[in-house]
Amino acid sequence: MLPLRKKIGYGLGDLGISISYFTVGFFFIYYLTDIVGLEPYLAGLAYFIGKAWDSLNDPLIGALNDRSASPLGRKRSYLLWCVIPFAISFIVLWMVPLDAGQTVKFLFATAAMLLYATLYSLIAVPYMALVPVMTDDYDERTQIVGIRAVLSTLGTLVGGGAAMLVSRFASELMGLRVMALTFSILLVLTVFVAAQSVRNLEGDSKNKPANKLLDWHLYWKLLKERNIAVLMIFKFIGAIATGSLTASLPYFAKHILGDEGRSTIGLALYIVVSAIFIPIWDRLARRFDRRRLLLIAMFVLAAILFAVGLFVSSASVVAFYLGCGLMGTVMSAYMLIAFSFPADLVDYYEYQSGERHESIIFGLWMTVHQLGIGFAGLLLGFFLQIFHYDGTLTIQTDSALLAVRMALGAIPGAAMLLAVVVLQQYGITRQKYLEIRQALAGKHPA
To answer: Where does residue 162 rank: exposed (0-12), middle (13-18), buried (19+ CB within 10 A)?
Structure first.
């Protein structure tokens, strides 16, 4: 068993990564439409292009990482060398020129997203792929992911909450840039702590590069495995839900609740409740099938999203706060359980084929996630454009307000329900995984 300090130190990396990631997810499209003055469809398109590239480069970086070798550790070396450029790319996102025309603004925003997406993958893919390297114990993996999930949700609070609080500054733009610099420093520090915590955990056998150059046929081969395909489809749909929810929240706060500060309080409630319930879901996951638990949680989450998105208003703030707390109780299950599945797929595929590709499978997982997030941003941008949202207006039309409500409630709620249906086809239960581990232990005795 790993010492608790190493698990927490590793999880701290997700704090810094999540702060930058969720700041972009919460605020970048809103920043482009309401501060930069970009047309909504162009803002959504710039965001989508960045995420689409992110989805393509994740497998490439996964393959590169699996073929790397370094005395610092195959995965750890990426954290050490790429974190400072990554922090700089985050700052560049918030430097779109305000006085330029629509074309220049769009091109700058797109280029900044492409740079950020590339460096994000160079950090995040090796970081996530460290879980199956750190331990092969089923429950310890869930615990590590649980610790990471707690710190990730804290990053959501810091990133999302602070980003929305920049409206309190005399200049939103200046507030954003101060925030970007502060978050970049925190990002560097937390990733360095994570890199130090996993030092010497990548043993010699795990530090050897793959014997052959990986080609795209392997990805198709992986996706032909039913459980892998099911989980990737589930992840894509789930990412559409979470992406739509996060990107629409600033619009919902401003135009439905009438006060950005209320959404920050709601977000804080969501995060605190999520953090409280992660250990509870962890204990439940040790006793019951994780898939069944997640099915129940996502069904409840969909119902809450429909209710909040369609019925909450500035006159029912208490109901909004209650909805945020309820979302936290069940979203923590998604954060904990869903993100523990890919580590099991690594062992499952080795059991099926005799080949082990940690970074490739995690790269695929992140590929479908980024595609889903990007599609959600594109959907939001075109929704706002079609329903005549104008970021320069203080009061929006009824049709624009309906688009905001649908983006926060109906779209993610429907996506969650569809994801529930897909996940029923996933077949790696606790018993199945234990059989796989026993078989693998027989192939590779200590």
So the answer is: buried
Structural domain including 70 reads: 4-203+213-443
Residue 211 DSSP symbol: S
Length of the chain counted residue by residue: 446
Nearest Cα to Cα of residue 257 among 309, 220, 296: 309
Q: Name residues whose C-beta falls within 8 Å of residue 423's C-beta, 6 or more positions apart in sequence.
A: 230, 234, 291, 294, 295, 298
Is 208 contained in some domain?
no
**Number of domains comprising the chain:** 1
d(CA 337, CA 291) in angstroms, rounded, equals: 8
Question: Is the per-residue pLDDT at 207 higher than 60?
Answer: no
Is the pLDDT reported for residue 150 higher than 60?
Answer: yes
- Residue 26 resides in a domain: yes
Residues 311-351 pLDDT 10s: 988 888 889 999 999 998 988 888 788 877 777 777 777 77
Q: Which of 165, 176, 26, 152 is nearest to 93 (CA)?
A: 176
- Closest to 153 (Cα-Cα) out of 239, 246, 271: 271
Q: CA 220 → CA 111, 211, 350, 360, distances in Å?
A: 30, 19, 16, 12
Question: Would 116 be classed as within a structural domain?
Answer: yes
- Distances, alpha carbon 172 to alpha carbons 24, 35, 104, 155, 225, in Å: 15, 8, 21, 21, 48
Return d(Cα 63, Cα 194) in angstroms, integer: 22
Sequence-distant (6+) residues with CB within 8 A of 6 are 134, 197, 198, 201
Q: What is the pTM of this model?
A: 0.80
Instruction: Look up the CATH number of the domain holding residue 277.
Output: 1.20.1250.20
249-284 per-position pLDDT tens digit: 888 888 898 877 677 778 778 878 887 888 888 888
pLDDT of residue 160: 67
In a domain, 401, yes or no: yes
On the 0-12 / 13-18 / 19+ scale of CB atoms within 10 A, 215 is exposed
Count of beta carbons in the 10 Å neighbourhood of residue 141: 19
Question: Are 19 and 155 within 8 A, CB to CB?
Answer: yes
For 349, counting Cβ atoms within 10 Å of its Cβ (0-12 exposed, 13-18 middle, 19+ buried), the class is: buried
Identify the residue with better confidence: 379 or 289.
379
**Nearest Cα residue to 359 out of 39, 57, 7:** 57
Q: Give residue 438's pLDDT band: very low, low, confident or very high (50, 70, 90).
A: confident
Percentage helix, strand, coil, to 5, in the chain?
Answer: 80, 0, 20
